[in-house]
Amino acid sequence: MSAIEHHEVTYAGDSKKIHYLATGPTDGPLVIFIHGWPATAITWKAQLETFASVGFRAIAPDMPGYGQSTSRRVADDYCQEAIVEGMMALLADTGRKAAVWIGHDWGSGVTSSVAVQHPEAVKALVSMCVPYSTVELGWDGFLPFVNREIYPADEYEYGQWDYMKNYEENFEKAVAWFDSDIAGVCKAFAQKTTTKPDRKAPNPLSKVRKIGWMNGLPKPPSVDVLGPAAIPDDVLESFTKDMQKTGFWTGSAYYLHHKRNAEYNGGRDRKLKQPVLFVHAQWDLVCETKESRLMEGMREACSNLTEVTVDAAHFLYFEKPAEVNAALLRFLVQELPDEWPGASESGYTKTKAVL
Known about the structure:
Elements: E1 5-11, E2 16-23, E3 30-34, H1 45-53, E4 57-61, H2 80-93, E5 99-104, H3 106-117, E6 122-128, H4 162-169, H5 171-179, H6 182-189, H7 208-211, H8 233-246, H9 249-252, H10 258-265, E7 276-281, H11 296-301, E8 305-310, H12 316-319, H13 321-335, H14 343-346
Parallel strand pairs: 3-4, 3-5, 5-6, 6-7, 7-8
Antiparallel strand pairs: 1-2, 2-4
Helix pairs in contact: 1-13, 2-3, 4-5, 6-8
């Protein structure tokens, strides 16, 4: 098995750095895994190891604001324009001009921004939970698709996205709640799905401005009252230490730029001709894509779109790594066969016999 290496690249006049993990043959097809909120590069360990084992060059950065990457308490560092600058520096550091980009949560917003701003750098795009043409376009990218039968506008103005508005209105208070028990928060988000939630009932995140996080808990649940994590102990420990190093201020600042992100990504050609995969999380009620209209913009924009569903909640690659890996690898071998390791040298042919 290939060892996981640590690298870093500086950019923005050497004022910022991105730390990233890399594994697999250096000349293998490049796949970049982009995490969301909250996560760090190490949470992709199962994907890094699997892709490296079949010959890909797999890398995962600590996104700006996380882990060992630059994590300044400067809100402007976390708008999509600044993040994309870092992603282009990351790509350049690999010596490549393009890659397969795989994103989850805010990572999907970032990879979508990369696809809009630098389509030549994207051989294929994979979004998990958060569709293309949503969060990278600011409020207008997702708020119009709230299911008003579940979230009447007079009671739930921002629908399940109320927690995002809470960041804009009460940022320091919101961050302080998470920072009060970072280990508990990390383990809470890494829990396995044990019950199937009711899609017809309002999500607790639709009430954050009224009652607070997690249905009004005064502080996050502590690690000793939570069940086993869905990720290995060593990954959870590393992830927790990463988050304790930075706290939640910097990663949460991604939520402060909806208007600016809309100006950055709006008005551009959003049609994608590359192969695109969307991975639905069956029990994700915040980014609910199975019965809502949230996928409409992605379906309209992508001419070669594949969709697959994993029986998990929002952190699906924590919870169901084997299923997620299988979906990703099947997509690549079917839709981007020339990028499969060794494809150009293998001489692989298929003959259909006439019986």
